[in-house]
Write a structure and sequence with these properties.
The complex is a heterodimer. Chain A is an alpha/beta fold. Chain A has eight helices and seven strands; from the N terminus they run βααβαβαβαβββααα. Chain A has a single domain, classed as Aconitase, domain 4. By secondary structure, chain B is an alpha/beta fold. The termini of chain B are far apart. The chains are: A alpha/beta, B alpha/beta. Chains A and B meet through helix 4, helix 7 and helix 8 of A and helix 2, helix 3, helix 5, helix 10 and helix 11 of B. Chain B: Pathway: Amino-acid biosynthesis; L-leucine biosynthesis; L-leucine from 3-methyl-2-oxobutanoate: step 2/4.
Chain lengths: 201, 467
């Protein structure tokens, strides 16, 4: 997994609440057996018209946001299905950070497994960041994970909370499975105990 | 000892390791695997040279991507066929038990788990599918995970987790005739909103929940995720044991007796702390229909489409206007005036035998409205077999329903079963998101009884006075 330390980039405003994972990546893109190449399907039903051409009104099709690396979105981002294709599609498009007032649990977890940083901020801070994002390429945001800080174009700062363990893994690009494998003796001990206490399992 | 909730007890029972910041390693007793969210996980194992740690605790089945027409001659769509073949290969290579598309035991993973007795009280169950919450009906801590976590569980039989908060949803009173488990859960989501349960595990309790069958409890727990909660729980009782006894993978003989003795302890202690409590009176519930593109957009069958201008907060107001535009509806329209093109009965929410019996009771001797295309997709091969043994298929076909092979079908429309742009559907599934059942398709979530009555009438109708 790629490390996440600091990121400076254009933030795209997605002013919709309850952006669900069907919206982020529609089902026709879930037939793949690969993790890569899903960027073309990101927000497909909003991004493309019925004939397959681009919808010029959709934010990521506007010239200022075509290279956005940050998404600023309404409440409850990523609700719905557990499909990890949603963060895979964001990543493949080039988005490494999503900012909202709240995230659905499974999507939130999935982001960390892919080097994407989901940031939860207060509604007031979201309004501020949304204003910044509306100013397009003239207003880049800087995300500093170590300092847990978002720095705006006018010198404004928003700090955010994040679990210590998740932060550590993201800063160092650590592989969860490798870390857990180191705890194999504890897992074995647990299995032995359970085999005695709950033999029917 | 401190009083603990049912969730606290199952959690405590599965902690393998705790880090200083509270992050835990949790043991996973049961892992269900399907074709859509697993190929990249198995590929990850191969690349790293890892094995499946506990193949006997893992069960694989195809459901999302299979056609619901005759599949004895293979699957036509090359991408679907490849994904299905990939699961078969992975199951064989890693020694995992697998039900293919021709196996009678095949079906939607959340129908199959309970049916086989793979789902047991007090266990932890995961699957790369958000509706894994269904299994909570048995008093199992069950939730959806992403593909990286699927790989983590395959490799280590554990999951890295932080403990969630406890939420109690207490549903007292007796459900009126014609009002069902589906209406209970839609009402709860309407009450708490789609993010209301975020960060919580919900325990459903109260007289109305106790009175539900296991199928009804599964319907309620299934949609916990639509309220934002990763997991829902119902404490096990005599109904749970009766459902599980003699299932192929349930404990037998002395082990059964021992298991039941343990399951009896899976109750929330008197005085245990809940971080949030919601109360509902089942006696006041009407049949419910969703009008928008979020499961929280609920209204009584006797109601009208609401006016988004009544919402104070701007982004939310705009989102609800967007939903109405997408749905092709105007504020003030009576729900019973909404005409339908399609009816879908099935899914892990409502594709079990009890749901089909309810539909048969309503449509027996009647005919599907000529303007409506109505399909019934059983949740599993065993549900289909049971329905046919009871003659339900004859009732459905005589009424003009399309009777299909088991799978997820038009709940998420990954296979050929989908809405055309602009088509309006009464669906017993769980999500009414934009495009969920097909590009520009319009979904209204309802109970099986309401979907059945709507199929006959051609528009929504109050099933309580439908005859």
């Amino acid at each position: 997994m790629e490390k996440f330390t600091t990121l400076t980039g254009v933030a795209a405003p997605l002013e919709i609440v309850n952006v669900d994972t069907d919206m982020i990546i529609p089902k026709q893109y879930l037939k793949t057996i690969k993790r890569t190449g899903l960027g073309k399907g990101l927000f497909a039903e909003m991004r493309y018209k019925e004939d397959g051409s681009e919808n010029p009104d959709f934010v990521l099709n506007k010239p200022a946001y075509r290279k956005a690396q940050i998404l600023v979105a309404g409440d409850n981002f990523g609700c719905g299905s557990s499909r990890e294709h949603a963060p895979w599609a964001l990543l493949d498009f080039g988005i490494r950070c999503v900012i909202s007032t709240s995230f659905a649990d499974i999507f939130y977890n999935n982001c960390f497994k892919n080097g994407i940083l989901p940031i939860t901020v207060s509604p007031e801070d979201l309004d501020k960041l949304m204003d910044d994002a509306r100013r397009g390429a003239n207003a880049t945001l800087t995300i500093d994970l170590e300092a847990q800080e978002i720095r705006g174009p006018d010198g404004g700062k928003v700090s955010f909370e994040i679990d210590a363990f998740r932060k550590h893994c993201l800063l160092n690009g650590l592989d969860d499975i490798g870390l857990t494998m180191e705890k194999a003796p504890s897992i074995e001990a647990y299995e032995k105990k359970t085999a005695t206490v709950h033999p029917w399992l | 000892m401190t009083a603990r909730t049912l969730y606290d007890k199952i959690w405590d029972d599965h902690v393998v390791d705790t880090q200083p910041d509270g992050t835990c390693l949790i043991y996973i007793d049961r892992h269900l695997v399907h074709e859509v969210t697993s190929p990249q996980a198995f590929e990850g194992l191969r690349v790293a040279g890892r094995k499946v740690r506990a193949p006997q605790k893992t069960l694989a089945v195809v459901d999302h991507n299979v056609p619901t027409t005759d599949r004895s001659h293979g699957i036509e769509d090359p991408e679907s066929a490849l994904q299905v073949a990939t699961l078969a290969d992975n199951a064989r290579d890693f020694g995992v038990e697998y039900y293919n598309e021709l196996d009678q035991r095949q079906g939607i993973v959340h129908v199959v788990g309970p049916e086989q007795g793979f789902t047991l009280p007090g266990t932890t169950i995961v699957c790369g599918d958000s509706h894994t919450s269904t299994h909570g009906a048995f008093g199992a801590l069950a939730h959806g995970i992403g593909t990286s976590e699927v790989e983590h569980v395959l490799a280590t039989q554990t999951l890295i987790q932080k403990k969630a908060k406890n939420m109690l949803v207490q549903v007292d009173g007796t459900l009126p005739e014609g009002v069902t488990a589906k209406d209970i859960i839609l009402a709860i989501i309407g009450e708490i909103g789609t993010a209301g349960g975020t960060g919580h595990v919900i325990e459903y309790a109260g007289e109305a929940i106790r009175s539900l069958s296991m199928e009804g409890r599964m319907t309620v727990c299934n949609m916990s995720i639509e309220g934002g909660a990763r997991a829902g729980l119902v404490a096990p009782d005599e109904k749970t044991y009766a459902y599980l006894k003699d299932r192929p993978k349930a404990p037998k003989g002395a082990a059964w007796a021992e298991a039941v003795r343990f399951w009896e302890t899976l109750r929330t202690d008197e005085g245990a702390h809940f971080d949030a409590v919601i109360r509902l009176d089942a006696a006041n519930l009407p049949p419910i229909v969703t009008w928008g593109t979020s499961p929280e957009d609920v209204i009584s069958i006797n109601g009208v489409v609401p006016n988004p201008d009544d919402i104070q907060e701007e982004t939310k107001r705009q989102s609800k206007w967007r939903a109405l535009e997408y749905m092709g509806l105007k504020p003030g329209t009576k729900i019973t005036d909404i005409a339908l093109d399609r009816v879908f009965i099935g899914s892990c929410t409502n594709g079990r035998i009890e749901d089909l019996r309810e539909v048969a009771r309503i449509v027996a001797g009647k005919a599907v409205n000529p303007n409506v295309n109505a399909m019934i997709v059983p949740g599993s091969g065993l549900v289909k077999m049971q329905a046919e043994a009871e003659g339900l298929d004859k009732i459905f076909k005589a009424a003009g329903f399309d009777w299909r092979e088991p799978g997820c079908s038009m709940c998420l429309a990954m296979n050929a079963d989908k809405l055309k742009p602009g088509e309006r559907c009464a669906s017993t599934s769980n999500r009414n998101f934009e495009g969920r059942q097909g590009f520009k398709g319009r979904t209204h979530l309802v109970s099986p009884a309401m979907a059945a009555a709507a199929a006959i009438a051609g528009h929504f109708v109050d099933v309580r006075s439908f005859g």
